[in-house]
Amino acid sequence: xxxxxxxxxxxxxxxxxxxxxxxxxxxxxxxxxxxxxxxxxxxxxxxxxxxxxxxxxxxxxxxxxxxxxxxxxxxxxxxxxxxxxxxxxxxxxxxxxxxxxxxxxxxxxxxxxxxxxxxxxxxxxxxxxxxxxxxxxxxxxxxxxxxxxxxxxxxxxxxxxxxxxxxxxxxxxxxxxxxxxxxxxxxxxxxxxxxxxxxxxxxxxxxxxxxxxxxxxxxxxxxxxxxxxxxxxxxxxxxxxxxxxxxxxxxxxxxxxxxxxxxxxxxxxxxxxxxxxxxxxxxxxxxxxxxxxxxxxxxxxxxxxxxxxxxxxxxxxxxxxxxxxxxxxxxxxxxxxxxxxxxxxxxxxxxxxxxxxxxxxxxxxxxxxxxxxxxxxxxxxxxxxxxxxxxxxxxxxxxxxxxxxxxxxxxxxxxxxxxxxxxxxxxxxxxxxxxxxxxxxxxxxxxxxxxxxxxxxxxxxxxxxxxxxxxxxxxxxxxxxxxxxxxxxxxxxxxxxxxxxxxxxxxxxxxxxxxxxxxxxxxxxxxxxxxxxxxxxxxxxxxxxxxxxxxxxxxxxxxxxxxxxxxxxxxx
Length: 572
Ligand code: PRX
Hints:
The chain contains 18 helices and 28 strands. By secondary structure, it is an alpha/beta fold. Strands 2-1-11-10-12-13-14-15-16 form a 9-stranded mixed β-sheet, with helices on both faces. Strands 17, 18, 19, 21, 22 and 23 form a 6-stranded antiparallel β-sheet that branches. Helix 5 (70-87) crosses helix 6 (103-115) and helix 9 packs across helix 10 (256-268).
């Protein structure tokens, strides 16, 4: 019988009584103990009597399905960890996962952690350029990939003398093998019932997730094994995950949602997860929910808006009665989307707010709490979340006034460093608060309302894209003198990238040149970062110190007030 009680029945009581110790005790952890995410998500669940419960239901793009129990996951992750160990990969080395959402991605992630490696998931749509920036920064020594992505890896091998192993999960023709390539064949490899799991402790590095920033290269947010404490309890309280659930997180593990809540949190709860490795269509998604009887669904506003556009007819063709709880992440969830979901699914999407750096939810709506459509909800119990002044960064406690969201450090899943970049890490802290870089206000009832980002990062379909990467790619074109990239409004993706380009003398703007520039950067950027439009301008608005004022360009796109332009160097 399904238990219809929510995991928490009163938000206020939970806030009063909460301590991270509750999660530690539920997971059987005591300070100083060995704690390994790979072990917590597989072996521990088996020991708790769920060895033969389904952990993963995977569906490929042809509709084919593979199923794995927690015991299968335990043995397969042992075997992959053993395989990597035999190759010579040692604890602390960075192992990149560069794959579509195939089972080996999920297995490889947990296997890497069992080995004590630092896993570095990267989105498989990244082009060679995006890939090498992140591999170079982390000096990654192994990459697990698929045959279909090998050309991108081969393209940059000559520039990566630190890359010792390229592990290909579905390579079948060994004559193509080069010195450093290995085949991981889970259908035929030796299965290890036992593997000496790396005795990581709370602060041992676990996952390295790259996130985009305004200036400079993407930053690697480094997490630790102790994060599982947060991810476990937030999955339980905010996503309301329970023993009988069939849970679907639509995010790709190349992004933090796909690991914190598409791998670690749910499996640490012993919950069955579904994964669909196929492109988005409303038909595909609804069929998937119907076929696997999904009960809890965690998705993103972009997808929700795309489903809204498809209308109700597609919903009516499917039996979606298994659904019981919906949640959303990654960008502002507009009130309209919440009201729509209540109308068509009979339940609201519950917005959640957090970031790569926070590793787990910071503010969210809980099943036991009244949802105010358009609000991100309230702080997770045990987390002190407030606002600091936009200019002075001083804490204030006034209702309805916009400030920067700030969190008191101390929650288990918080990132511990930006890889190789202590200065950027330190910049994030003021007066003992971690600053999230987002603006919000808090209402009389303690609900948070998102206002916007504090910087220039573009949020397209829930993915952060730094203008720097796009501008750098544009500047490599011989005709481009200056470039700027900003987000412009888009009904489905919230924002899409728009590029502004000033040409070098001797070049004339034309449709042909626009196309040529687009083709030139397409090879360098991921599809997400590709501008939808290039506008030629004589010059870009800049500060006297030469910094491009993207917010001026952005305000024009959004039809907003330009604000203070006293530092502007030139007229537009
Ligand atoms: O600007 C906020 C936006 O996404 C940023 C974090 O992006 P990333 O590190 O890629 O992690 C995404 C998934 C955790 C935030 O700084 N964001 C995230 N959730 C929301 C949001 N903006 C508005 N409402 C949200 N619920």
